[in-house]
TrEMBL record, chain A:
Transmembrane segments: 12-31, 51-68, 80-105, 142-159, 166-185, 191-218, 230-251, 331-352, 364-391, 397-416
Species: Flagellimonas olearia
GO biological process assignments: cell division; regulation of cell shape
Upper taxonomic lineage: Bacteria, Pseudomonadati, Bacteroidota, Flavobacteriia, Flavobacteriales
Entry GO MF terms: lipid-linked peptidoglycan transporter activity
UniProt name for this protein: Rod shape-determining protein RodA
Automatic annotation (TrEMBL), chain B:
Membrane-topology annotation of the record: Single-pass membrane protein
PANTHER family membership: PEPTIDOGLYCAN D,D-TRANSPEPTIDASE, PEPTIDOGLYCAN D,D-TRANSPEPTIDASE MRDA
Pfam families: PBP_dimer, Transpeptidase
Penicillin-binding protein dimerisation domain: residues covered: 46-207
Alphabetically ordered keywords of this record: Carboxypeptidase, Cell membrane, Cell shape, Cell wall biogenesis/degradation, Hydrolase, Membrane, Peptidoglycan synthesis, Protease, Transmembrane, Transmembrane helix
UniProt keyword annotation of Protease present: yes
Localization terms from the record: Cell membrane; Membrane
InterPro entries: Beta-lactam/transpept (IPR050515), Beta-lactam/transpept-like (IPR012338), PBP_dimer (IPR005311), PBP_dimer_sf (IPR036138), PCN-bd_Tpept (IPR001460)
Organism: Flagellimonas olearia
A biological-process GO annotation: peptidoglycan biosynthetic process
Protein name according to UniProt: Penicillin-binding protein 2
Domain Penicillin-binding protein transpeptidase: 247-577
GO cellular component: plasma membrane
Main location: membrane
Length: 427, 622
């Protein structure tokens, strides 16, 4: 329809899904930040006015991205990466502290959050490294390089402190897995998480007993022909027990009380119902309020601008991290299910697009983009509906915030640009 | 595998989220949670409570403003505590205590600091209030009494209790509600309907505007005024006459059943139960277990009625055809039950209906009573007939007035005596005391007044009531405008009424006639006993009097019951005659009699059983 230009080759389905998500997000920001004094939606003193401005800036960014040469991103990815690392390091000196985290540069009209830029840069850098003709992900050395590329920015972000953003970088492991990074690493990772959680819930003794019992069952009921060496199994059990002991130590001595409280809440570690309810209302205040707000929406919701808890500002940070609770209260199950569906379709479409790339770089970058977005989506909504402990990450395209929206948009449209170019890549 | 990993993760997450959301929004959702939504506050707008007027349109109960000093702890700035306490008239310790409580309740919300200031205190405070940040004065409405009488009829309002809160969704904590008397009976009319505003709040409990632009809000609806049947002047006069006496008086307009006065002695000023001193006064009244000022003797006391009851036995005798007005009985200064002589004060001789009533002859009525029972084959049948006639006068059961309390009195039936004596082991002579209104019979002053009204009407009565009209419509419950017919034919009333009129002209009440007003009445002198520390002792007789006037076209029927007032014509008779004169003439001609009644008290009688010393009863001290 747009001929042979970039608009003719770009994936419009993705763009429509993107536009829908941004629009629904803004509607909810409007609802959470509307006050009686508000007048025009273009009033830039209001949050929804500002967000509208950021949407405008994002549009400019999209146009910019679409008109840049496709291989520009691949060629300059290393430079982006280095620059973003420098920006992250620079925060220790020049950073602006908001809400206890030194994560921003004050640009006067706008606070820049380099960890957002870092996601784009890391995605590009990782794709560039992995797609290099000399890289072989099956070798330990290259696995190590890949890990360094991923974890370096995470380590710079962690002490800001912004553990949420740092955690996001683990999303890039999906890229590695797609590109042949052995899957058993994922198995080991899941096993470690399971050990950690079960140690907190049941204690080291029961964890060890559990492992021994499972091992015995396996040995008893296995086929006679199947030979399992005994020694390594014993080794795993012993190492796991030691790990379990260290979990206790780390949990009690390295974690702070607020971290422990989050786990207490999440895993229901407190057995006393009354105390648990108390924790839920104090430490778990945000989650409690957001769950209540979502719950009160019912099937049909209370209607646009009718959310009493949203209006009453009962859910803290509702325009940013907890924006989804506003969807729940005002639009009900219909609204939340629609949003979940939109996101799922959006992600599946992106995966489909990534898989059709002929260029390795494009595919790998695409996987980086998708992993980052999925991780945000999973952690954010999981937290808002009370499935995960409180970890502060925004919901892509939804949450209020300039850096977030602009960089998520750039992240996405660089991929769409690469995709629009896929037919030329083969040549 | 590796190509499908991310897609599977996305789908898995999607299902997990939808599952969790279904749990939250479909399973845990309950539609009535707007009630406990912390974001919505309900503010009530209270309408003014309806006024209460007497039958002549005179105000009895209105409203008055009261002023609460309120405090919002967070907004209080350092102040001169001593000066402020002085201004409020409270102790410093008290002040600090209240502040602490208010802060505990909520630093952001108002609490009452000093409740219900008088108008004078308010005037003093008003100009200085602005110096004290965080304090302000809130106006409330309290009951105002335009009379110091009728506390027992009007009742009072007080805060709803926990039981009512749980069982009646119309009230929220702290609201006022009628708890006795007319205030309780006509609560819904007087209360009106409160308006409600829904306010959207934020998490700091601050108001941020109307909820849904006020779509759910309602306006208050004014309480209706009511007119009650009491005659304020008569009521006040009756209470003055009851000064120093225990007992009850009920006056009824026979042609309508409207209660003109309802007096219980001792009583209290209704204004005592309003304002700051309310709880102190209430305890004082409530714990006075000897004179029991909060116990309404006019409808709750159930003494034996005594001789006024004889008129009913006469009517039953006539109706059953066992006597004629001319039927005669001989009085041997008493009458024999078996070989025992029961006394009579009438003077002896041969009595017919007229002189029997006139001189209140016990022997005559014992004779009548026996004849009623003799008419029937068995005592049981006689009892049934007698009981049916008695109950048709509204005795022996709740009358169904529009007052929230009451007592049934007692007309014994055969089951009662079967239980007491055994089946077939009692006869008319066993229960002969019933013929003269003693024995097992009990009636409240209200029932006696109603019975008198039925006689005055020659055979029917209207259920006594205190409501005259409600609001402007005037409609009251139709059950108060339906006549209840007794089982006695109209023609039998005339000879009995003639006898009652003669009580005044020539009989037991001839000393207390009123010039120009023809009265029919009947005295009663009731023996009574109490138990103190397990010992049964007889006290001075209760003085009872029932009367109606004028004999033709009766305007007032009343019953007066004075505890330990000695014989019927003494206290009860005097008071009855004064009330009749006051009501019919509007003024008192016999001022010396009036003066005596206003001044005389029976406190010495009431003190006797509690003195711990032996005492005489029925002393002729006047």
């Amino acid at each position: 329809m747009f001929g042979r230009g970039v608009f003719g080759r770009i994936d419009w389905i993705t763009i429509i899904l993107y536009a829908l998500l941004v629009f629904i997000g803004w509607i909810n920001i409007y609802s959470t930040s509307l006050t009686d004094q508000s007048t025009s939606i273009f009033d830039f003193s209001t949050l929804y006015g500002k967000q509208l401005f950021f949407i405008g800036v994002s549009l400019l960014g999209i146009i910019l991205v679409l008109f840049v040469e496709s291989n520009f991103f691949e060629r300059f990815s290393s430079i982006f990466y280095v620059v973003s690392l420098l920006l992250l390091a620079g925060l220790f000196v020049f950073g602006k502290t908001i809400a206890g985290a030194t994560s921003w540069y004050n640009l006067g009209f706008f606070n820049l959050q380099p960890s957002e830029l870092g996601k784009v840069a890391t995605a590009l850098a990782l794709a560039k490294f992995l797609s290099d003709i000399q890289t072989d992900i099956r070798t330990r050395k290259h696995q190590m390089y890949a890990l360094i590329i991923i974890l370096l920015p995470a380590f710079l972000i962690l002490p800001q402190p912004d553990p949420g953003s740092a955690l996001i970088y683990f999303a890039f492991f999906f890229v590695l897995f797609r590109e042949g990074f052995p899957l058993y690493y994922l198995g080991i990772l899941l096993f470690i998480v399971a050990l950690f959680v079960s140690t907190l819930m049941f204690g080291t003794v029961w964890v060890t007993i559990g492992m021994v019992v499972i091992a015995l069952l396996v040995f008893t009921f296995k086929k006679a022909s199947l030979k399992i060496p005994l020694l390594p199994v014993l080794g795993v059990i012993i190492i796991s027990t030691l790990f379990s002991l260290s979990v206790n130590f780390v949990y009690e001595n390295v974690f702070e009380q607020r971290h422990r409280d989050r786990f207490t809440l999440w895993l229901g570690l407190e057995k006393d119902e009354k105390k648990l309810e108390e924790i839920r209302k104090t430490i778990g205040y945000n989650t409690y309020q957001s769950e209540k707000a979502i719950e009160s929406g019912g099937f049909f919701g209370k209607g646009f601008l009718e959310g009493t808890r949203t209006k009453g500002d009962f859910v803290p940070e509702q325009h940013t991290d907890y924006i989804f609770s506003s969807v729940g209260e005002e639009w009900g199950f219909l609204g939340t299910a629609t949003v979940i569906l939109l996101f799922s379709v959006f992600f599946l479409r992106l995966i489909y697009i990534a898989e059709r790339q002929k260029s390795d770089f494009s595919r790998m970058y695409g996987y980086g983009v998708i992993s980052i977005l999925v991780f945000h989506y999973f952690i954010n909504i999981g937290m808002v509906i009370g499935l995960l402990p409180t970890i502060g990450v925004p919901l892509p395209f939804f949450s209020y915030g300039g850096s977030g929206l602009i960089f998520f948009t750039m992240l996405l449209f660089i991929f769409l640009k690469l995709d629009s170019n896929r037919l030329k890549d083969g040549i | 595998m590796k190509k499908l990993l991310l897609s599977s993760v996305v789908i898995l997450i999607g299902f997990t989220f939808i599952g969790r959301l279904s749990y939250l929004q479909l399973f845990r959702f309950s539609p009535d949670q707007i009630l406990d939504d912390p974001a919505i506050k309900k503010i009530y707008d209270y309408p003014e409570r309806g006024y209460i007027y007497d039958r002549n349109g005179e105000l009895m109960v209105g409203n008055q403003p009261a002023y609460d000093v309120m405090v919002i702890p967070r907004e209080v700035t350092p102040l001169d505590t001593l000066e402020f306490c002085d201004l409020l008239g409270i102790e410093k310790a008290d002040f600090l205590d209240k502040m602490e409580k208010a802060r505990t309740y909520s630093p952001r919300l108002p609490s009452v600091m000093v409740p219900q200031l008088s108008k004078e205190d308010y005037a003093k405070l008003q100009e200085k209030m602005r110096h004290y940040a965080g304090f302000y004065i809130q106006k409330r409405s309290l009951r105002y009494y335009a009379t110091n009488s009728a506390a027992n009829v009007l009742g009072y309002i007080s805060e709803v209790n926990e039981w009512e809160l749980k069982n009646n969704p119309n009230y929220v904590a702290g609201e006022l509600k009628g708890h006795t008397g007319v205030e309780k009976q006509y609560e819904e009319v007087l209360r009106g309907r409160k308006g409600v505003k829904h306010i959207q709040k934020d998490r700091f409990n601050r108001d941020i505007g109307p909820y849904k632009s006020g779509k759910l809000d309602t306006l208050p609806e004014q309480g209706k005024e009511i007119h009650i049947t009491l005659d304020k002047k008569l009521q006040e006069y009756g209470e003055r006459l009851m000064h120093g006496k225990h007992g009850g008086i009920v006056a009824i307009e026979p042609k309508s059943g409207e209660i003109l006065a309802m007096i219980s002695g001792p009583t209290y000023d209704p204004a005592l139960l309003v304002g700051r001193q309310r709880s102190k006064n209430y305890s004082k009244l409530h714990f006075d277990t000897i004179s029991k000022p909060t116990w309404d003797r006019s409808i709750l006391a159930q003494p034996s009625p005594g001789s006024p009851f004889k008129t009913l036995n006469a009517l039953i005798g006539l109706q059953e055809g066992v006597i004629q007005p001319e039927t005669k009985f001989r009085c041997y200064h008493g009458f024999y039950v078996g070989n025992t002589l029961r006394g009579c004060h009438c003077g002896g001789g041969v009595r017919d209906l007229n002189s029997g009533i006139q001189q209140s002859c016990n022997a005559y009525f014992a004779g009548v009573f026996r004849k009623i029972y003799d008419k029937y084959r068995t005592t049981d049948e006689g009892m049934d007939a007698w009981e049916k006639h008695m109950k048709s006068f509204g005795l022996g059961n709740y009358l169904g007035t529009d007052l929230p309390t009451g007592a049934p009195g007692r007309i014994p039936d055969k089951a009662y005596y079967d239980k007491w004596y055994g089946d077939g082991r009692w006869a008319a002579s066993t229960i002969i005391s019933n013929s003269i209104g003693q024995g097992e019979i009990a009636a409240t002053p209200l029932q006696l007044a109603n019975m008198t009204a039925a006689i005055a009407n020659r055979g029917y009565f209207y259920t006594p009531h205190v409501i005259k009209n409600i609001g402007n419509s005037g409609a009251i419950d139709p059950k108060y405008t339906e006549p209840h017919y007794t089982t006695i034919d109209r023609k039998y009333f005339d000879p009995v009424i003639e006898g009652m009129a003669n009580v005044y002209k020539y009989g037991t009440a001839r000393w207390i006639q009123i010039p120009d007003i023809e009265i029919a009445g009947k005295t009663g002198t009731v023996e009574n006993f109490i138990r103190i520390d397990g010992e049964r002792m007889q006290l001075t007789d209760h003085s009872v009097f029932v009367a109606f006037a004028p004999v033709e076209n009766p305007q007032i029927a009343l019953a007066v019951y004075i505890e330990n007032g000695y014989y019927g014509a003494r206290y009860a008779g005097h008071i009855a005659s004064l009330l009749i004169e006051k009501y019919i003439k509007g003024e008192i001609t016999r001022t010396d009699l009036e003066k005596r009644m206003l001044e005389k008290t029976l406190e010495h009688e009431y003190a006797k059983p509690y003195s711990g010393e032996p005492f005489k009863i029925n002393e002729y001290v006047w």
